[in-house]
Design brief:
Layout: H1 3-6, E1 25-30, E2 33-39, H2 42-58, H3 63-84, E3 89-97, E4 100-107, H4 131-138, E5 143-147, E6 150-157
Antiparallel strand pairs: 1-2, 2-3, 3-4, 4-6, 5-6
């Protein structure tokens, strides 16, 4: 038997709510959060946002912090979809750590990296291009890690409201 088959993990203290099996959506509970393997679609993003809200509120985080985490997650997933196309396979990880909420989004294209645009956040004329500026504000210090199977955008949202 392979070592990975023998490994046992402690049960999740606050498992995310059961999500019915749907094509393109696989949920893996993890300590203080989850990893959702999804085929990017509006319904799957909506489900991941709902899971994020439920998980973080269950762990006692303030609603404003939860809203920030949901917005950052949406921006990261949206950037992956713009870079890789509709229905791209993604992994969205959400979990609480001692230093905040970890949000990681993996996609399969290491060649298309997120880039900031010089569009002011308060621009009345801009129709887009402010997403990473919002991520900078809500999750300062985010970074990209390239891997053999794509890239991972990693960030931390502070667990306390300013």
């Amino acid at each position: 038997m392979p070592a990975c088959a023998r490994r046992r993990h402690a049960p999740h203290p606050n498992p995310p709510p059961h999500h019915p099996a749907t094509p393109g959506f696989y949920l893996r509970p993890r300590p203080q959060g989850f990893a959702a393997h999804i085929c990017a679609s509006s319904s799957n993003l909506r489900a991941v946002r709902e899971l994020t809200r439920t998980e973080l509120l269950t762990q006692g985080l303030a609603p404003g912090v939860v809203d920030s985490a949901q917005l950052v997650l949406s921006e990261l997933v949206g950037n992956s979809v713009r870079a890789c196309g509709d229905h791209v396979p993604l992994v969205a990880e959400v979990y609480v750590t001692s230093y905040g909420i970890a949000l990681n989004v993996h996609d399969p294209d290491p060649g298309v990296l997120p880039r900031r645009r010089a569009i002011p956040l308060d621009s009345a004329e801009a129709e887009g291009g402010r997403g990473l500026g919002l991520v900078d504000l809500l999750a300062p210090g985010w970074h990209v890690r390239c891997a053999a199977i794509g890239k991972q955008v990693r960030c931390r949202v502070p667990a306390e409201e300013p």
